[in-house]
Write a structure and sequence with these properties.
Elements lengths: L1 H8 L30 E14 L6 E14 L4 E12 L5 E7 L21 E2 L13 E7 L4 E6 L5 E10 L2 E12 L2 E12 L6 E11 L2 E8 L11 E8 L7 E10 L5 E9 L1
Antiparallel strand pairs: 1-2, 2-3, 3-5, 4-6, 6-7, 8-9, 9-10, 10-13, 11-12, 11-14, 14-15
Length: 275
């Protein structure tokens, strides 16, 4: 359990929903002058909204949205992210944001310096400080006027390699990686098989899987890569992804891949973490 928790600590943002806006265009370079810094623009990344009702399950308390934007250079690199919260209270109910964080191992900054006032009408917070370090999703939290709590997650972390196993053959090098990230509020895990050919060789990928053994119970997901079986003579990469089961007790989380080499031998690689 400790191993998986550690693997998730530094999850970062990487995979995107289609962004809006157009990158700015860099100016023309002057001969002999140092290169101009990359132009950047803020683009939409993710928005998550939740509607809330009172204890009667019918009366609307309103809606809360968490929004994240990404800062993108004219070459497509993401250099930062920022988040904010949008409140739409209803029927006189009050909402008050308190803190946020990026799963980056840092503290919990306040949404409003000195604390936000309770809001009973439509209100949008300032953007958070720009997050440039590797991190997971944006989580913003707060409370209603009756003291009950709420929280929302938006965006996702980049895939992080938690374990890796590589083998080099005459036909080239194959690696399998166990990778983790958070997608909004959901931990995910995946297996990645990569192959770099050598000496005119190839592999024939058979299966790729990701799984776990928790308190003696094994679960997993395996993708059949023989639909049909294909010789891979060039650099190759494939993944299998699933939501991470809840950790408990003694456990192992792993990625596996099986492939055939030119001599007819079948190889299996496994990368895992335990704790």
């Amino acid at each position: 359990m400790r191993a998986l928790t550690k693997a998730f600590v530094s999850v970062t943002a990487a995979v995107g929903i289609a962004a809006t806006g157009s990158p700015a265009t860099a100016g023309t370079a002057v001969a002999g002058a140092p290169p101009a810094p990359a132009a950047t623009t803020w683009q939409a990344m993710d928005t998550v909204c939740t509607s809330y009702t009172a204890l009667d399950g019918v009366t609307s308390m309103g809606k809360i949205c968490a929004e994240v934007q990404k800062r993108v250079t004219d070459t497509g690199s993401v250099t930062g992210r920022r988040g904010r919260v949008v409140l739409s209270p209803a029927n006189g109910y009050e909402m008050k944001p308190t803190t946020y964080h990026w799963y980056a191992g840092t503290g919990l900054p306040e949404v409003c310096a000195g604390g936000c006032a309770p809001q009973s009408s439509a209100w949008t917070s300032p953007w958070s400080a720009v997050q440039t370090a590797d991190s997971g999703p944006y989580k913003v939290q707060g409370e209603f006027g009756d003291g009950s709590l709420w929280d929302l997650h938006a965006a996702w972390g980049a895939w992080q390699t938690a374990a890796e196993k590589c083998s080099t053959y005459q036909a080239g090098t194959a690696c399998v990686r166990y990778e983790v990230r958070r997608y909004r509020d959901t931990p995910q895990e995946r297996s990645r098989l990569t192959y770099t050919p050598a000496n005119g060789g190839y592999i024939i990928p058979k299966t790729i899987g990701v799984g776990s053994e928790i308190d003696g119970k094994t679960t997993g997901k395996t993708n059949d890569l023989c639909q049909p079986c294909t010789k891979r003579t060039k650099s190759y990469s494939v993944t299998a992804t699933r939501e991470t089961p809840n950790p408990a007790g003694t456990n192992e989380y792993y990625a596996t891949a099986k492939f055939e080499r030119p001599n007819g031998a079948t190889s299996t690689l496994k990368a895992s973490i335990t704790g």
